[in-house]
């Protein structure tokens, strides 16, 4: 398109030049070369127009292809979403089937166990049957004996029947008495239910007062817990500060001892050898050794364990007062020892 515009511009310029040349009197008419150039430019213009038409057709076809592909992509995306949904459904189904399989396996295990126990029972029953057969034979023999005894018992039965009739009369009397007692029981139940209703009202009021007291005690317990946690943190913090102060005092003592042992000239000589200043040399002398760092790590771990132990005590079951007092007294004794050590160090340094 740009070439086309350039060519059109050149053509217009040539035409303008030819017109101006024709109008002016002194200037001669344009030569054959100019005409040739004009023809070439027109030919180029036609070619560029043809190319533009070709490219526009290709662009249209490409656009149509792009639209078709976009539609195809949309269809594929819809298909993918459907497939994903199917996949998710299948996954859920598989998970359900797995859970069911596990449940069935467990049921199968239980059923196998029950089957084994039943088989054992069947074996035991078979043994019992054989024993019972033998016992039946013995019972048959006893039956013969029992039939003989039956006649004797029949006589006894007649006597018992007479006694039963007498007891039936007694029973009727007892039943009448039972009815009377049941009436009395119903009256007692009504009075008891009324009394229970009154007691339920009283217990409800008592429960409300107990709940209020419980809420107050819970608040007090929370306050106590926060107090204990704050106290333990402060204790641990003060112990750590004392340790750091003791370390600093020890370092100061060591540095002073080194300074006393070394003269000013030797210090300057050592600084010149090491190519450092005297203050840098003092800092080098003050560097902690590996044992001291390990000791500090151990102390830090012990403090951490102590705090965790107190937390466990507070969160544990009652009673824990004795264990808590022992743990706090242990830390207080440690603090006391550290204070004594620090005071003795300070005296020696002074």
Automatic annotation (TrEMBL):
One GO term describing the cellular component: centrosome
TM ranges: none
Stretches with biased composition (Basic and acidic residues): 1-18
InterPro entries in the cross-refs: CNTLN
GO biological process: centriole-centriole cohesion
Cross-referenced Gene3D superfamilies: 1.20.5.170
Chain intervals for the UniProt region annotation (Disordered): 1-34
PANTHER family assigned to the protein according to its UniProt record, in alphabetical order: CENTLEIN
Protein name per UniProt: Centlein
Organism the protein comes from: Eudyptula minor (Little blue penguin)
